[in-house]
Amino acid sequence: MAITATENDGVSLTTDKISYDLVETDIEIITSGRRRIPAHSGVLAAASPVLANIIEKPRKSHGGSSKRVIKIVGVPCDAVSVFIRFLYSPSLTEKEMESYGIHLLALSHVYMVTHLKQRCTKGVGERVTVENVVDVLQLARLCDAPGLCLKCMRLIHSKFKTVEQTEGWKFLQENDPFLELDILQFIDDAESRKKRRRRHRREQNLYMQLSEAMECIEHICTEGCTLVGPSSNLDNNMLKPGPCSAFSTCYGLQLLIRHFAVCKKRVVGKGCIRCKRMIQLLRLHSSICDQSESCRVPLCRQFKQRGEKDKKMVEDTKWNVLVRRVASAKAMSSLSQSKKKKSEVLLKEEAEDFIRIRKTKFF
Q1: Band of pLDDT at residue 317, cut at 50, 70 and 90
Q2: Which of 7, 221, 296, 340 has the largest count of CB atoms under 10 Å?
Q3: CATH class of 207-231+242-349
Q4: Residue bearing the bigger pLDDT, 350 or 239
Q5: 21-57+64-127: what CATH class?
Q6: Where does the record place the BTB domain (predicted)?
Q7: Contact 104, 83 (CB under 8 A)
Q8: Three state DSSP letters for 58-126
Q9: Could you give the CA distance from residue 169 to residue 132 in angstroms, rounded to a whole number?
Q10: Collapsed DSSP state (helix, strand, coil) of residue 5
Q11: Which residues are paired to 27 by β-bridges?
Q12: Do 21-57+64-127 and 207-231+242-349 come out as alike in CATH topology?
């Protein structure tokens, strides 16, 4: 990038490799330390719309000098020098970002230099620490940098006990109670979201377990497993099948079924927690089952008929929600299993093709 003279504003950006020193500067930047930085109005106006508006204003005389003067104060002189140089050539070193990143973020926001603001937001975010996070958060809010604000909020949330001990937090409590309230509200919302996610995961695990239990009940009553099976298998003197893939769940259900068949408390009408649990599982299966006429699970058809007559059972909102979610979990489980089986078949076919190709090459 280079600068050449024009009739309008004295300079313009071109692709010719001409040194800036060949074009006379027509503007001076004055910093807090009274340092004067010569610059070209065309370059500043092209890089910053705010500087362009300042330059377009009527020129005022400053001590007999014919050059325009723009004051950039409130930040270190070296930070202003880096800022002006960036307007000429958009590059920053790690050392400059480390030393002046916060100041450059403020300057880029004030003078609307978007690409510099993006780089400073990222650079300052990478260097934020527990000690300066409160200061960076305040600056990010002033500079309208939501991504940096969110990063600071998350750091405060994760290290809140340590942040509370910093001078920045103590100053915040004394001078900006509204920001303190926003931070505490963010932490409270984050904790609430975390609790909801944990509860949702627990519920999903429960639905998946119930879905697996429904599949095991069908498997036990249709095919049989190690301890329990359909009566037709026993009549034909067939061998008991071995453990299934979900044996841990299946074995517990088999024990529950055997207890349900011989429980004396259930027979005499006394309450039995295990029998009630078994009845609830059978009722849940009946609510999900869409083949009650041919289903071999005990009491499936009876629960279907009873549910059609009993309006309270139909109108039980919690029960209906449970049925829908278990059915959804069962559908998702069967879908994932079918995908897994398809991938296993494809891998097996690819392995067989590879072996066949190898054999044809060597023989």
Answers
A1: confident
A2: 221
A3: mainly alpha
A4: 350
A5: alpha beta
A6: 25-96
A7: yes
A8: CCCCECCECCEEEECCCCCHHHHHHHHHHHHCCCCCHHHHHHHHHHHHHHHHHCCCHHHHHHHHHHHHH
A9: 9
A10: coil
A11: 39, 68
A12: no
Looking at residue 194, its amino acid is K
pTM of the full predicted structure? Answer: 0.64
Place of tokens 């088999």: 254
Closest to 10 (Cα-Cα) out of 45, 53, 62: 45
Q: Which residue reads 């309450």 in tokens?
A: 271
Instruction: Look at the block and give the residue holding tokens 């409130």.
Output: 74
Q: What is the pLDDT of residue 30?
A: 92
Residue 244, amino acid? C
Whole-angstrom distance, CA of residue 103 vs CA of residue 97: 9
Distance CA(63)–CA(47), nearest Å, equals 28
Ranges 102-106, 283-287, 319-323, most confident: 102-106
How many Cα atoms within 13 Å fall on the side-chain side of residue 323?
Answer: 18
Residues 86, 90, 95, 98, CA torsion sign? positive
Domain extents for the chain?
21-57+64-127, 207-231+242-349
Amino acid, single-letter form, for residue 56 = E
